[in-house]
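Hallway conversation turned thread

IA: we were arguing at lunch whether anyone had actually written out Small ribosomal subunit biogenesis GTPase RsgA end to end. Turns out nobody had. So, for the record, here is the sequence (345 residues) and right after it the structure tokens. Reply here if something looks off.
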Amino acid sequence: MSRRDIGTDDHRVKVRPGKRSRPRTKVRPDYSQARRGRVFRIDRGRYHVSMLDDGVDVVAVKARELPRGSVAVGDICAMVGDLSGRKDSLARIAQVDERVTALRRTAEEGEAAGNERVIVANADQLVIVTALAQPEPRTGMIDRCLVAAFEAGMKPILLLTKADLADPSAIIEHYSGVDLDIVVSSLVHIDPLTRVETLDQDQLQTIRALLTDHVSVLIGHSGVGKSTLINALVPRAARETGHVNAVTGRGRHTSTSAMAFHLDDGGTVIDTPGVRTFGLAHVDADALLRGFPDLQEIALDCPRGCGHKEGALDCALDFSADEHVKLRVQSFRRLLDSIPQPQWA
């Protein structure tokens, strides 16, 4: 056996012998029989999980092998460790099961701009909450959420709040060509002492019927009434409600993290923090068009390879004389222009 070259012939130099390398085993732990739980809240590195078999709520940490950001509210996870739910006990999330759906958003502001993340997993309905006044409705935000819902394979529902302050007919007409459930809610009373808000009960029953036996996500700008709705559906939730700034027209953030609540009649509703933007950089042009099903049918007459942008040769979206369709095409193209193009495009 040849001597190892240590770079010198000086006998006084002592070289520590190298450690033997041992290949890592390819055998991984099997968690197929581990108990399962659904994540209903994430707070500062602690995961609040409701066990599926007995309903016990446990607090857990993420296994070291799971990368950062790999666990989202709504995830079904394999749970190990102390699953008693006792105070100061700590379980561990060992594995995240395959997701049925994943609602994604791309950050557009701050240091995280361009980063895609999953907001909620395994939900089947996206409830787009839009106020008719204070703050004013923004169709651009609604369109972005519709695209995100269709891209994720979720059913979209448009909930128009504060119908006591403004007429919802214009927004309802704007989305008349979209296969979309549209419901409204009105505020009927505010307790002057407790500031507890009461919604119209008939409207609330209609909303509750749409949410029963589903996992639904509420999303919208701050101040549109998501927390008020949660409190009406789940009184024990006691979500803090805020107000809208009279100068800026923007609401104050009252929810700081997504949190799931169980409905008494069955189903789950997930409240999310108010958002100012909803980035779609992760969505391609074809997926974007699926978010406009009324335009998707018209686009069938486009020539092959049509990019649907303004000025595209023989684009069928340019030939409609309907003013409503023209407005929808403008909304679609604004979103299309906002999506970053690949370098080879």
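OS: looked through it. The chain has three domains: 36-98, 103-243+253-271, 285-338.
IA: good, adding that to the notes. The chain is about 20% helix and 25% strand.
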